[in-house]
Design goal:
By secondary structure, the chain is α+β, with helices and mostly antiparallel strands. It contains 4 helices and 7 strands, in the order H-E-E-H-E-E-E-E-E-H-H.
């Protein structure tokens, strides 16, 4: 007999599969060059990676975006992983913020399966664009990849909250 928690997880997994299949594009439309672990509203990282949909990111979505919500003890509550573009993945859009008793961490990276782990603190909730930078020349005058500690904390908190709200809608 499946309890309420098991039904909830099953429902989230089914929702994730339906969304992933509806987002699937023919191979000619794909080619972002990166493949990410993808899952929606699962309870922990192991479950996400174990049941992740394995398909290349669509063109224009060159980042793996990871949202991790933890309770006051640091235990996972929600894990969301997906392909994303530069509107969701940018240097000031990553990090961790405390909301009530939960910690919300966001990280972005652009290498194959780079989102295998989930961010748990400021040290590993990072923005990494190694592939993107190697494909395009970036002039020093352009926006650099700033570490989270050099950005105003209020802006970072608002950016993370915006990304969290956008990903949950």
């Amino acid at each position: 007999m499946v309890d309420g928690y098991g039904r909830l997880i099953s429902w989230f997994m089914l929702t994730s599969l339906v969304k992933a299949s509806s987002d699937h594009q023919p191979p000619s439309k794909q080619g972002g060059g990166v493949t990410c672990y993808t899952c929606v509203n699962v309870s922990d990282n192991l479950m996400c990676n174990q049941y992740a949909i394995d398909s290349p990111c669509p063109e224009g979505e060159d980042f793996c975006h990871t949202l991790h919500i933890m309770d006051s003890t640091g235990a996972s509550v929600v894990v969301n992983k997906k392909c994303a573009d530069t509107t969701e993945c940018w240097p000031l859009g990553v990090g961790c913020v405390l909301v009530d008793t939960q910690t919300i961490c966001v990280s972005c990276c652009d290498e194959m399966y780079c989102n295998v782990t989930v961010p748990t603190n400021q040290s590993n909730a990072i923005y990494s664009n190694r592939r993107t930078q190697s494909r395009t020349k970036v002039r020093p005058s352009e926006t650099p990849d700033l570490p989270l500690s050099s950005a105003p904390q209020t802006l970072v908190s608002h950016s993370i909250l915006f990304v969290v709200l956008k990903s949950l809608l």
